[in-house]
Structure formats: C-alpha cells, structure tokens
Amino acid sequence: MVVGELTQERDLLIIGGGPAGYTAAIRAAQGGRNVTLIEQAELGGLCLNRGCIPSKVYAHAAEEMLRLPHLEDLGFTAPAVHDFSKLSAYRNRVVQQLRQGVVALCQANQIEHITGAASFLSEDRIGVESGHQFDTYRFQDVIIATGSHSIQHEESCRLNAEQLYQLEQLPESLLIIGSDTLALEAAACFHALGTDVTLFADQLPLEPSLEKELKRTFKKQKIRLVSDVVTRIEASSDATVTVMKNGEEVAYQGAYLFQSLSRIPNSLTLGLERIGVTLAEDGTILVDVNGRTNQPHIYAIGDVTPGPQLAIRAIHEAKRTAAHLSGQDVDPTTPYYPTVLRTFPPIASIGMTEQEAVEAGHAVQSGQFPLNANGATTIEGGSGFVKVIADEQTSLILGIHMIGDDAHRLVGQFTQALELTAKREDLLFPVMAHPSRSEALTESMEALFGQSIHLPPRQQVGSRA
Ligand SMILES: Cc1cc2nc3c(=O)[nH]c(=O)nc-3n(C[C@H](O)[C@H](O)[C@H](O)COP(=O)(O)OP(=O)(O)OC[C@H]3O[C@@H](n4cnc5c(N)ncnc54)[C@H](O)[C@@H]3O)c2cc1C
Ligand SMILES: NC(=O)c1ccc[n+]([C@@H]2O[C@H](COP(=O)([O-])OP(=O)(O)OC[C@H]3O[C@@H](n4cnc5c(N)ncnc54)[C@H](O)[C@@H]3O)[C@@H](O)[C@H]2O)c1
C-alpha cells in the first residue's frame, strides 16, 4: 500500500456518486462550493447502473411488447420474435449514455472526481483507498451518500434485485417472494417478456381499490399469485419454494428465485463508530431536517438514512442539503413521495387512502372514473381508473390514485395538485387536452358530485365515508 504523505485540504467532500451524491455535488457547485466527489465504483450509483434505469429499460420493452396485439388492430404486422440479447445490449447503451452524461456534468461543474473507497479517520479527515494507493483528505464539510446494498446469495439461482436486471438471458421461470415495488415490478415485467412467473405475496401494499384491480390484472395476465404462507426455500441448481395450503405442503419450482428483502445501508465500513456518528438500530445514519448528523460538518442523505429507499427521496435530500451547505434557506417540509409502479398497466398513487383520511378525522368524499369511458383510452386501448379522495367540508384534495396506461406520466400532475394544497375547484376548473387521459382526472373530480359527463347516472362512482 502506498500512503500519500500529506493530508490534502478540501472544501466539501461527498462520499458516494449515486443520485444522492452526484445531485448534491452539482447543486453545491452551483452554490459556490468547491466539491470533491468520491465514488468507489461507477458514477450514477445503484439507480443508474443496476436499479431504476435498467429496470425501466425492461419495463419499457415489456410495455411495447404488450402493445403488439393492439398494433395488429391498427393494421401493422407485429414482429413475433424477441431477442433478449438485443435488449441487454440496449440496456447497456442507455446506462452508458446516462453515466457519461453524469461524468460530463461533473466536469462541466468543476467537480473533482476521485475513484476509491472512503472511510473516516477522524471528525475532519477521511482516507480514500484505491488499489494500492491510500490518500487522506481534510474537509470543511462532508456529505455521506453511500446508499444501500442487497444481500448476495451464494447459490447462483438466488438473485437479488440488482442481479435480476443484469441477466444476459431471459429466465425460463422465476419465483418471486415479496409484495413491495421491486417484487411487483419484476413479476409484471419478466412475465410480459415471456418468463413463467410465480409471485408469492399475500396483501399488496396499495390503496385497496388499486390492490383489487392489480390482482385482477395479474389473474387476467396469468401471473401465478400464491398467497399461502411460505414454509421452506431450497436452492441448488434451481429453486423450490414450499407453501402450506389447506394443511398440506405444495412446492413450486423455478430456474431462479428473487426474494425482495430489506436493503442494508452502506454505513458500517465507513468508520463512523470512531467519530461518534449516531446510527439507528438498522444501521441507517440519523440526521436532522437539513441532513446533518449529530456531528457538525457531517451530513448524510439518500438510502443510507432512514426513510423510503427511493431515488426520488435521494434527489430531494441532495438538493436540500447542498442548498443548506451553500448558505441558502431551505424548506424543511417533507414532500409527498408518490408510489409509482411500472406494472402493466402502471400505477401512480399519492396522498391518503379513504381509510387513512377517515382516521385523520376528515369527512371523506371519493370519486372514481373508469378509463374505459375515456376517449383517449378507447383509441389507444387499456383499462383502469382514476380515483380521487377529498375532504367534503374543506374541499381539500387528500389523495389521487390511478391504475391505467400513462399513470406514471400523469403522476407529476397529481403530485403538483397535492403540493399546491389543491381544492376540488382547482382541479375541476383547468381545461385538459382532448382527447387525453388527463380528462379522467377531471371526471373523477366530477364523480365526487355524481357529475361525470361520460358516465350514466347509475355508474357514477362517488361515495362518502
Ligand atoms: C431494481 C431496482 C429498481 C429501482 N427503481 C427505482 C425507481 O424506479 N424509482 C426510484 O425512485 N427508486 C428506485 N430504486 C431505488 C434507488 O435505486 C435508490 O433509492 C437510489 O439508488 C438511492 O440513491 P443513493 O445515491 O442514496 O445510493 P446509491 O445509488 O446506492 O449510490 C451510492 C453510491 O455510493 C458508493 N459508495 C458506497 N460506499 C462508498 C465508499 N465507502 N466510498 C466511496 N463510494 C462509496 C456506491 O458505490 C454507490 O455508487 C430502485 C432500486 C432497485 C434495486
Ligand atoms: N418504482 C419505484 O419506485 C421502485 C421500483 C423498484 C424498486 N424500488 C425499491 O424497492 C425497494 C423496497 O422498498 P420497501 O420500502 O418496500 O422495502 P422493505 O424493506 O420495506 O421491504 C422489502 C420486501 O422485503 C420483504 N421483507 C422484508 N424483510 C423480510 C424478511 N426478513 N424475510 C422475508 N421478507 C422480508 C418485505 O415484505 C417486502 O416485500 C426500495 O429500495 C425501493 O427503492 C422502487
């Protein structure tokens, strides 16, 4: 090991170049800080290289594939054969292009990029190990953005979430245990691409009418949904999951098994115990509303801190902490984080369910509009609904839930409505493009009063709880 002789002085150090780290680096550079970004692997982190982006390349391919029968309706002769190796190559090109973009943006913002694994030597000094080289840096401030990792199983048939989207061949069969976004997206996506999928999940953690509709969709698509309790997992050359059904053991076999387990924060190899940074029991780093730990000048953001392990949170926190460290005033409010699921059709859900609204003391009113009564959906195909939940007395919008094509595109509109504390009239008044699926939002609002235009009176789905 070659140890650098002098400790080098730096202004703001950021450890980890995922969506949290590189976003914070760029925003802090915009705010006038001299930024050094330390990444042990590749810029872009889990999200860009092995998570959000690869999984959405697959979701995009699956969505296009599911549209093939509709293309035939439109007179096209649809290609029938899918070459998975071309999809893998496309995934690699997308990831590489986006990663090069991050590298170029860091350069353009004069961010110093160091490759190596960082750990703390003292409250104001870190060491960075890169191959045989070990250099030390003293900092004014540091942001820890080291993310999280999944358990890696020894058996080659047991995959974690990252490995699932790196496969070079489409699995013939796949067993999935879990009911979170990862498990549901993987089940929908691999099934659409041609894998025989069995999903072991009981309750899906969604707004109840979305859960019901997704279960119905899975059934229609012939995704095997097993809700019996898993009693045994065996893995050798392939995987077997055994459940208890009516007092008897039933076994399911698959070429691969993906079990969506809790992710582990990357905090334990940083030497944080040496400098007294407080961790929660699960290893996440405890921070205040600005992302500051119990040590002054040491901040943490993204998956390595408590909260939903989502890139959208990592990005929000990165901007907030970078602004704080650039001397700007920061809004401490926690934003709405929408649930977005790239199932087929996709799901977008934000704010309260009816039950949560009742429990929070609201006089709840809900309205629902089916997409098969929406012109754009009749043209383009598909089904689903938009459901809106409001407070009858104050007319505040409390939640918006959609299953249907374009849900992941319309979710921005829903999020803005909730962030702007919209009232019923705010969503009833604006004119929507025609024909478009946005009109279904207006009609779900009208359904609150039994006034949807495109539904006969007996089908108006509005209720009070
Ligand atoms: C399959 C999958 C799909 C997903 N899809 C979505 C999605 O659609 N939408 C969404 O919002 N979220 C999604 N996520 C979650 C998202 O990927 C994470 O929430 C996000 O990557 C967290 O960002 P981060 O910057 O905190 O951490 P990471 O992206 O994990 O980045 C941390 C970086 O720090 C580096 N690092 C760690 N330790 C050190 C060290 N000691 N020294 C130097 N560098 C270090 C790592 O190499 C890594 O590059 C998905 C996750 C998976 C697995
Ligand atoms: N579209 C999206 O937003 C999107 C897409 C894909 C993935 N993700 C990511 O999915 C991940 C999961 O999120 P989460 O908050 O639901 O995670 P979580 O840690 O709460 O749960 C993950 C899953 O593991 C299961 N589980 C947890 N502990 C277990 C145990 N000991 N034994 C067996 N099963 C266990 C849970 O039932 C659940 O199905 C996050 O990293 C998230 O960012 C998000």
Automatic annotation (TrEMBL):
Its cofactor is FAD. Residues 11-318 form the FAD/NAD(P)-binding domain. InterPro entries: Class-I_Pyr_Nuc-Dis_Oxidored, FAD/NAD-bd_sf, FAD/NAD-binding_dom, FAD/NAD-linked_Rdtase_dimer_sf, Pyr_nuc-diS_OxRdtase, Pyr_nucl-diS_OxRdtase_dimer, Pyr_OxRdtase_I_AS. It comes from the Bacteria. Residues 338-444 form the Pyridine nucleotide-disulphide oxidoreductase dimerisation domain. Keywords: Disulfide bond, FAD, Flavoprotein, NAD, Oxidoreductase, Redox-active center. PANTHER family: DIHYDROLIPOYL DEHYDROGENASE, MITOCHONDRIAL (PTHR22912:SF151), DISULFIDE OXIDOREDUCTASE (PTHR22912). Belongs to the class-I pyridine nucleotide-disulfide oxidoreductase family. This is FAD-dependent oxidoreductase. It comes from Exiguobacterium indicum.
